[in-house]
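Pilot study result, target chain (262 residues):
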Amino acid sequence: MDIFHAIILGAIEGLTEFLPVSSTGHLIVASEWMGLDQSKENAAFEVIIQLAAILAVVANYSEKFTLRYFDLWLKIAIAFIPIGAIGFLFSDQIKALFDVKIVAIMFIIGGIIFLIVEHYQKDRVAEIQYVEDVSFKQAGLIGLAQVFALVPGTSRAGSTIIGAMLVGLSRKASAEFSFLLAMPVMVAASGYDFLKNYKEFTDANLIALGVGFLTAFIVAYLAMKLFIRFLEHFTFVSFGIYRILFGVLLLALIYNGTLGAH
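Predicted structure:
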């Protein structure tokens, strides 16, 4: 992996991690296009750019990391339990699903679900306008919705946002709860991957790692801010349409032989 690859993948991670479009799906597709294999060195790089995205959450929501918000973090911990347990117990089966064709199909399914949810929610007044007001029950239900993100292409942000909207959160509160819930999920996933691939850091291109980290942090930081501003004026319909079009494009490329379907 060279610096060009690091910038592209870092930017993709930063832009897509917190949007409902599947960062994993985009990274898989981008790696295929650039001819990067799923080596341990590249897995180590993904740990680094995910760490950058985690720090971007801290930078954007530093005021939430105080004892004043202890109840909120307890709710986030509860929401993390389902995906943490299932991800740990079925990690091998989940990794077997990592395939471009599955990513494409889940992009389309997720896009359709967004359009359906927005259709039925367009005139609704959300019960919860602020992320701090989410209940323990709502947090648990959002956590169950997040489990669907274990299928590549589904999108962790997408599944949690849809789950949050369905249980009464506003679009903005849904997005912010998704941002914060990313913390324990990404820490657990990155920590697990680090333990498996830590030896690769000794042989890694440190310049590429640093460039990828910085790129992912800056892009993720800005993406979160712009995403919240976007939701103050618009719905998720555009994301639903994007997902469907991107999924169809991927299927076309797969059947044309441009992308590999394993």
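One observation from the pilot: The chain has a mean pLDDT of 88. A full batch analysis is planned for the follow-on phase.
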